[in-house]
Amino acid sequence: MKKKKLLPVILTFALLFTGCGAAKPASVVESAIKCLQENKLDEAREYFAQEDTDETEAVEKVTDGTEEDTEDAVGNAFLGVMNDFAKEHAKDITYEIKDTKEDGDEATVTVKVTYKDAGAVTKLAYQDLIEQSVSSALTTSLAGAGGDIDESDISAIFIKSFENAQDSAAFVDKSEKLEISCKKVDGKWKISDSTDLLNVYYGNILNTLEKLTPDDSDSDDDNKADTEADTEADTEADTSEQETTDTEPSEAESDSAADNSSDVTTYDTPTTASYTTWDDTSEVIVDMTYTGENSSGQMVGNFTFTINDSEDSSDSQQISGSFIENEDGTGTMTKSNGQTMDYSIYWSTDHNNMTVTGVDGSSTIDLMDATWAYANVG
Question: CA of 235: how far to CAs of 167, 222, 306, 375, in Å?
Answer without folding.
Answer: 48, 20, 45, 55
